[in-house]
């Protein structure tokens, strides 16, 4: 099927066509890895960059985007073309595992494949003749080996693979010192919060194809994201958190703050935890205030508990209606990113503490990525992922520090989030 896919796309480019129906049979996202492994293999092997794979939390379809469009075809306009947009964590430097990543992107892809219940569709956005010729050359080179053969030899797809933890940054004693600095700032004030993160470096087999396979096999009902600026690096994961979804003037966002392990006894304690209830309220109140200047009728739902694999989260849904139709997605990103779920509040003080206390760059961890089609768009928060660059592999996790926080519990939360991420990628922690 991968060769047939390439031939149909190449034929469309030669004929000057821009939309192609590639397969009529449904390709449900929930079983894509099993029903169409050739598609994942072909996408991973294609020599067209940047690459983005994105599944909305609703799970209705999966988008595979290739390249960066230089000239949009006249068959598409701003109301129909898909634009992918992403922003890293504020102030992050592209160093260490993030070297080679850009701080942001905003483009229509040259080629977009959409897999869903309606089958597989392709849209070719690139109109520049030279760029289309290069795209044709790239499509004319099939993957080096069939997926069936690669499955037998690629340790990045074997299950379960072992992950050797090399180091935590900060280590536990360093984390305790950073925690104490944050608590000096917060004291007993229940209106203050700072998110402290940890980077975990590990040694494990992880190829782009292996990461994609694992993500598409997960039963975790979150956003799936994969972003590769080139062939040597990518950031991929399963995020439970929405930054915002937009449908015309209607904006929907959420406060996802407060975490527990997903067990019945823990859930009962979690529901009445004053610390987590206060943390969630801080985030929801901040988001409602941030939206107020550009929306009317802001509504905040009651707190609920939602599962995310081996974890539980507290969530409040927040909704508003934009008062000015000219308010753009970038305007909303500037207003909301990062929320106190990722940084803290007040934001400026939290960001200053993060810069002082964390001995690494967050890069794209806790950044945002999404897709816009005309008046509809949806962006997730880039957490619960693994960053790969050459032979480097790093996982990032954070926890919210408030007045009732306990250092040991917060550090255990980081361990629980690390375990959840490893599970999503079919990795077993090597002891």
- Percent helix, as a range, is 25-40%
Flag low-confidence runs: 144-153
First CA to last CA: what distance?
41 Å
Strand content: 25-35%
Using the coordinates shown, work out and report the CATH topology of the largest domain: Anthranilate synthase
Main sheet: strands, sense, barrel: 13 strands, mixed
The radius of gyration over CA amounts to 22 Å
CATH architecture classification name of the largest domain: 4-Layer Sandwich
Q: Could you tell me the number of beta strands?
A: 22
Counted up, domains total 2
Q: Which whole number gives the mean pLDDT? A: 90
Write the layout of secondary structure elements.
Elements: H1 2-15, E1 19-23, H2 32-35, H3 37-45, E2 51-55, E3 61-66, E4 82-87, E5 104-107, E6 111-116, E7 119-124, H4 129-139, H5 147-153, E8 161-169, H6 172-186, E9 193-203, H7 208-217, E10 223-230, E11 233-239, E12 242-247, E13 250-261, H8 264-271, H9 274-291, E14 295-300, E15 304-308, E16 311-322, H10 329-336, E17 344-345, H11 347-357, E18 367-373, E19 376-382, E20 385-389, E21 392-401, H12 407-424, E22 427-430
Parallel strand pairs: 8-22
Antiparallel strand pairs: 1-7, 2-3, 2-10, 3-6, 4-5, 4-18, 6-7, 8-9, 9-17, 9-21, 10-11, 11-20, 12-13, 12-19, 13-16, 14-16, 15-16, 18-19, 20-21
